[in-house]
Design brief:
This protein is of the alpha+beta class. It contains 5 helices and 8 strands; from the N terminus they run E-H-E-H-E-H-H-E-E-E-E-H-E. The protein has helices at about 20-40, 60-65, 85, 90-100, 140-155; strands at about 15-20, 40-45, 75-80, 100-105, 115-120, 125-130, 135-140, 160. It has an 8-stranded mixed β-sheet, sandwiched between helices. The longest helix is centred in the first third of the chain and has 18 residues, at about 20-40. It is globular. The chain starts with 15 loop residues before the first strand and ends in a 9-residue tail after the last strand.
Length: about 170
């Protein structure tokens, strides 16, 4: 049953450990499909650079388009967004149309917290604990979600705006 405040039915989302880039990418696609189908109101995506997320795929762009509507909110948090134009062109196009529901933040610099590789929602989360080997855990555990939210909040407090919708050239 969906959580009324979040619109998220965590029971249909995978729970447990994952390993490898294919499984990680499939978990992201599954979360995107659930978000579109169930109309999630808010979520946070976090990664140092999002280079190995499947954000350039047509199925991802279609799910994002289906998810998009007034009252929705996606927070992006990264150390840099330079790979988006090269690897995630469909997502960049979607972001240009729906920039008003996306808050893109950069957390990078000496002494600033490390940006985790994760998806956070009010009732479900996915987190890569070993980015290099693409291993992590997904699930509904409240303590894990709370710990991730605290780490994300620390990064967000130290962040600044990033990933502009358009880039002005000289």
């Amino acid at each position: 049953m969906p959580n009324e405040a979040s619109g998220i039915n965590a029971a249909v989302l995978p729970s447990g450990p994952f390993a490898g880039p294919d499984e990680f990418a499939q978990l992201i696609r599954t979360a995107l499909d659930a978000a579109a189908r169930e109309g999630w109101r808010e979520w946070t995506w976090s990664d140092p650079d999002f280079v190995d997320w499947p954000l350039g795929e047509r199925v991802v762009a279609d799910a994002m388009q289906q998810w998009s509507s007034a009252g929705r909110r996606l927070t992006l948090l990264a150390e840099r967004y330079d790979v988006f134009e090269r690897h995630h062109a469909r997502f960049v196009h979607w972001r240009r149309m729906w920039g008003h529901i996306v808050d893109a933040r950069v957390c990078r610099g000496a002494g600033l917290p490390t940006v985790p590789s994760a998806i956070w929602t009010p009732t479900w989360a996915l987190r890569r604990l070993d980015v290099e080997r693409c291993r992590g855990h997904a699930g509904t555990d409240a303590m894990s979600r709370r710990a991730l939210r605290e780490q994300l909040d620390e990064c967000l407090r130290s962040s600044r705006e990033g990933f502009p919708i358009t880039t002005l050239g000289l």
